[in-house]
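#onboarding

Welcome to the new folks! Below is a worked example of what a typical request in this channel looks like: someone posts a single protein sequence, and someone else replies with the predicted structure as tokens. Don't worry about understanding the tokens yet, we'll cover that in week two.

Example request:
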Amino acid sequence: MNHDEDSKTDMAYQLLRREILAARLAPDTALRPTALKDRYGLSWTPVREALARLEAERLVVYRRNRGFAVAPVSSGELDDLQRARQAIELPLLKEAIEHGDSEWEASLVAAHHRLIRCTLPVDDPSEETLTQWEQLHAAFHQTLLSAAVSKWLLRFQAQIHEQLQRHHRVLAILPVFKSREVDAQEAFDALRNAMSPLHHTELLNAALDRDVDKALLLMAEHAGTTMDVFERTSAVQEQLARRKAQRLEAAAEKLKKAPKPVAEAKPAKVTKPTTAAKTTKATKATQTTKALKPSKSAK
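Example response:
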């Protein structure tokens, strides 16, 4: 592959990756190279190469006889990712606090300052605000852990964070935004709590105070707030599904009990005689007329 093709592949990879992480390409969406070529103005080879790279990152799956598709999300995988996050982030946080220097502290304070000045998506549920908040939120957590010495754990943490971000969008954040018009206040309040600057301020202070035990406890609690949003959102969606099923059932029952309309009797249709029938009638009339006339012998 030459440099130009490599550049186009990287462009296709970055574009598709961004669309998947932002859930603009929804989970389980078929990723047909021909359609992607037309939609994004990309060439065939870069699209195929990009899909292969995304499959290696588990953002895309390949299914026999069906081709590529956006990787699915599920409550089970979200729970698995949360456990993986705890297993990796807590040791990294401990290392970071123990090895962080004054430059790390300054970077952490700056990342926290940018995050708390950002508009919360719960106050402005637009795509632009949500994306900006996600980027600043990720930057704070990455800076918090950046002084850790394990490079492999840091790589795993970055991959897990992106997968969690997509699961959070699809399973928690976007459903809450869509449910604001119905009875979803508990889920909305849980989302506001999860995004609250207070959690990040407490984490910042514990890290700067080099209080490892408190920082680990706060990190575990912070991770749990997102699961709380998901659980409450799921409860709201189940409630909405039950209400919809009840409405459909009531409508069907009402339809059963409704009296059936009586069909009005249609007047008998008068059939016009055909040409053949007219000819037959005319012939009979002629025969009758001849029978009534006296013959010459009778005169």
